[in-house]
Amino acid sequence: MKLEHKSLDRGLTIMEVLARNGSCSLAELHRTTGISKSSIRRLLATLVERRLVRRSLADGRYRTSMLMPATAGMPVPVGLAFAVDIALPHVTSLTKEIGWPSDIHLLEDDRMRILDSTRPLSPYHLYRAFLDMHVNIFGSASGTACMAAMPDSTFQAVAARTNRDREWGLARYGLSVEQYREHLAMARRRGYGTRGPRFIGNTRFDDGLSAIAVPFFRDEQVYGAISLLWPKNYLEPETFAREHLEDLKRTAGLITEDLARLTPPAGETPL
């Protein structure tokens, strides 16, 4: 087998393993494929550079951005991975500046999807983020921030589509449309989203955190949100926002600007 063909075969093998497993560490890729770690590092560097694979800051694991025949999980589409690449340096700077960690959420259908987090960079040891998982749009601060930035008709449509859905709808929290509309109105007055009533985290138990979030935009449409997190017994959201909201908004604005400046034309894959 020629050297270039051998490298291509190894690269495809790595992507297939990532697609099948959802995410892998370098050691797991070595153990699964039998390829030397030095070769895997070189191949991953190329795949990351071409945005076919990304390495998450929150857990250091590699994830594919492409649909592969072996895909069993939820690979991140190239366009979304590109947005995370743009957002991550800005939220990293924010965490280095103020200390508190930030999560990056992207709007996906009627849910939010957490794609990366600066929690490992924060001096405050908070409950770890679960990457690539969907979270309830009504419960999360990021979902509230996105919904508050969209017309009320959009909220009504999402509420109707998820009506009585105990996983993704308002039924999960025992809330009516009118009750949640009051929560959205508060978010619009404050200029940021908070976790919804009775939301205690992305998992089934209380993570002990509070969050505020603001949206960022792509093509003048709400595309996602960034949040700041802290222990809920430390400060009330209003007090925390007085200290850090302007920094959070500035960061979201920089992400929006870069998405407009760096995003390639429709149909063109970012390289």
Write up what this structure looks like:
There is one protein chain. The chain folds into 2 domains: 3-64, Arc Repressor Mutant, subunit A (Orthogonal Bundle), CATH 1.10.10; 78-262, Beta-Lactamase (2-Layer Sandwich). The longest helix has 26 residues, at 237-262. The radius of gyration is 19 Å and the shape is globular. It has a 6-stranded antiparallel sheet. The protein is of the alpha+beta class. It has helices at residues 3-21, 26-33, 37-49, 78-98, 141-148, 152-161, 177-190, 237-262, and strands at residues 53-55, 62-64, 102-108, 111-117, 134-136, 193-194, 209-218, 221-231.
In short:
Helix content is 44%, strand content 17%.
Keywords:
two-stranded antiparallel ribbon; about 270 residues; 8 helices; alpha+beta; six-stranded antiparallel sheet; about 15% strand; Beta-Lactamase; 2 domains
How are the elements arranged and paired?
Blueprint: H1 3-21, H2 26-33, H3 37-49, E1 53-55, E2 62-64, H4 78-98, E3 102-108, E4 111-117, E5 134-136, H5 141-148, H6 152-161, H7 177-190, E6 193-194, E7 209-218, E8 221-231, H8 237-262
Antiparallel strand pairs: 1-2, 3-4, 3-8, 4-5, 6-7, 7-8
Helix pairs in contact: 1-3, 4-8, 5-7
| Proportion of helical residues | 40-55%
C-alpha termini separation: 28 Å
H and E order: HHHEEHEEEHHHEEEH
Number of domains: 2
Strand content: 15-25%
Structural class: alpha+beta
**Name of the top-level CATH class of the largest domain:** Alpha Beta
CATH architecture of the largest domain, by name, is 2-Layer Sandwich
CATH superfamily name of the largest domain? GAF domain
Radius of gyration: 19 Å
Which topology of the largest domain does CATH recognise?
Beta-Lactamase
The major sheet is characterized as: 6 strands, antiparallel
The low-pLDDT segments are none
Number of beta-strand segments: 8
Q: So how many helices?
A: 8
Mean pLDDT: 85
Strand order of the largest sheet: 5-4-3-8-7-6
The coarse silhouette is globular
